Amino acid sequence: MSRxxxxxxxxxxxxxxxxxxxxxxxxxxxxxxxxxxxxxxxxDPGFHSVAAGKASVNLDAWAxxxxxxxxxxxxxxxxxxxxxxLFDGAGKAGQGSAADLAHILKIPVLLVLDAAKTAHSIxxxxxxxxxxxxxxxxxxxxLNRVGSPRHLDMLxxxxxxxxxxxxxHLMRSEAFALPERHLGLVQAGEIDQxxxxxxxxxxxxxxxLDLEALTQxxxxxxxxxxxxxxxxxxxxxxxxxxxxxxxxxxxxxxxRDAGAQLSFFSPLADEPAPETAQYIFLPGGYPELHxxxxxxxxxxxxxxxxxxxIGTPIYGECGGYMVLGKGLIDAKGIRHEMLGLLPLETSFQxxxxxxxxxxxxxxxxxxNAPVMAHEFHYASTLKADGPALFAAKDADHADxxxxxxxxxxxxxxxxxxxASH
Length: 421
Known about the structure:
Elements: E1 3-7, H1 15-28, E2 34-38, H2 43-52, E3 57-59, H3 66-73, E4 78-81, H4 98-105, E5 109-114, H5 122-132, E6 138-146, H6 149-161, E7 166-171, E8 180-181, E9 184-185, H7 194-205, H8 211-216, E10 235-239, H9 249-257, E11 261-265, E12 279-282, H10 291-295, H11 298-310, E13 314-317, H12 319-324, E14 327-329, E15 335-337, E16 344-347, E17 354-362, E18 371-377, E19 380-384, E20 390-393, E21 399-403, E22 405-407, E23 410-413, E24 416-420
Parallel strand pairs: 1-4, 1-5, 2-3, 2-4, 5-6, 6-7, 10-11, 10-12, 12-13, 13-23, 14-16
Antiparallel strand pairs: 8-9, 14-15, 16-19, 17-18, 17-20, 18-24, 20-21, 22-23
Helix pairs in contact: 1-2, 1-7
């Protein structure tokens, strides 16, 4: 039973590329494991699911209690992709880092190293990460972007002097790059021949990967039984397409496990929300890239208006929140008419980054407990007239003021909710 984390000293080292190759090779070897991502990332889990042939989960050491993390991680094999650098966390104290998650799960860490611009100095870097936090076990490294056989030999000799195990390596190749967008990698479903690309990277890693040593990496498995919160309704309708793609798998699983019926509809295909829905969820995504199509989706818009009129609870977060508003201005300055269910106007014409964890205290009856969430978007709020949904604080407990809106039984905010506390 193999349980480990794939991390790196910083972003951009190639964690995702290496993780996908390792997951594919484990899958081919019929070694069972649960794929997972540290932190609130929506994009990488989609790639994991393709590479592993199994749905990935988010494990968040900042937002989730330890019992929930253990429950989602399961008691079998586990491969976790870290976020950012191994010790990079939230706020001034760096809480909720991948290292914190590795400590909670008691699993060893493999460091992916970008070797493109270093040689012997790499040993000092790895020794520093290995010795920095005694709670975390750095089991070894996978070298990425190695320039040549001679370069590889230098790296191997330097690391051997520090008794650092090399689990495998990838040579430098432009063919291993993935396309990106302003929120990170594009979604897995948007990349043609993704399976072929993963196979290509896996084939490049396979000759050097010490698969036997990899399967020996492990940690204690603990999957406690947790009390599931009651779902918001027995029939939940969820918008699902390229404009509404950001749902946390653990959230949907929690609703299903608690007995709710989930149905999905595509606003981009002008599909209406089911008439029998008792709760409607508009997740985040990229509505700004499809604003014209959403504005002309008459069937979708009419169905949401009918549900709002009869009092069906409707909740939107981030992209879904913007669509609930009156208008959305795209990057070209063109205003598109949205649902008009909240007194909200948003714009992408002048981008401004909003990023970070959020501690949210409900200001209305729509939520009955504080929630931990994450905000990541470039939209600006031009107008938000109405009662706020939450009082917000950041990861350092600094007051951020009020957040979101609610009107009748419709509500939303820019925050992606991860867990209740």
